[in-house]
Amino acid sequence: LPGVEEVRVLMTSERRTRRLIAVASGKGGVGKSTVAANLAIALQRRGRRVGLVDADIYGPSQPRLLGVEGVKPQARDKVLLPVQTRFGVPMLSMGGLVAEGQAIAWRGPMAGGALGQMVDADWGETDLLVLDLPPGTGDVQLTMIQKHKPAGAVIVSTPQDLALIDATRAIDLFNKAGVPIIGLIENMSGYVCPHCEGVSNPFGTGGAQDISAKLGIPFLGRIPLEMAIRSASDAGEPPAAGNGPQAELFAGLAGQVDD
Ligand code: ADP
Q1: 18-257 is classed in which CATH architecture?
Q2: What ipTM was assigned to the predicted interfaces of this complex?
Q3: Ligand 1 centre from 175 Cα, in Å?
Q4: Contact residues of ligand 1, CB 6 A cut-off
Q5: Distance 28 CA to ligand 1 centre (A)
Q6: Whole-prediction pTM value?
């Protein structure tokens, strides 16, 4: 039988092989959670064993996106057991740790503790954890960077100047902490009218690509503003799990993240 020290070493090395990919944004409402859920599913469809941690304390939306709203995670020996979803991506959410409808007034250390419990949950064979971070550059992001050292960060922004300025701040935080930026995704980029099929750009377009070039970080691609993405997400049917053009789009993004 291994001694205590050996077990500890084993546990540490096991943990190291699990890569954490942070999905972050400078501000809320830009589609960070939507991208995190669909990326996780697309990575799983590439044959990765993927788990998803919803660390967005302000608006934990992964339970709804993945169709497991109201399902409480169980625990064994005080270790959380991730909630299984229909998409082969187990998930833990800040939302699952409080009663439904209860205001989440997390204080920094409490949120950090909850994040730690979720990252160190019983993820089994999972080799990749996608982390849906809260928007901005606050306590949870710092704890996550310092304690859990993600392998890389994907930044999501809409094309507006203001969103991009905030995204630049988030990029700066990861840069300073030595976390590699996997790349920037421009979401809600271009709107295809379902009636006339004309393309308009309510939030502009191309801004994220320009910023990526300026900052010398990879530009991963654009996701259009599409009714189908919103309605599928609300119905707990992430488009990445389907067979439509959006699934192809997310498969392409996942390929770049997985390189
Ligand atoms: P965040 O996590 O950045 O706050 P969400 O992922 O919750 O943002 O997205 C905010 C809203 O925008 C949700 O209703 C979501 O369904 C919708 N949404 C996100 N991306 C798109 C898109 N590309 N097309 C249409 N709706 C989108």
Answers
A1: 3-Layer(aba) Sandwich (3.40)
A2: 0.99
A3: 26
A4: 25, 28-34, 59, 61, 187-188, 223, 225-226, 229-230, 233
A5: 9
A6: 0.91
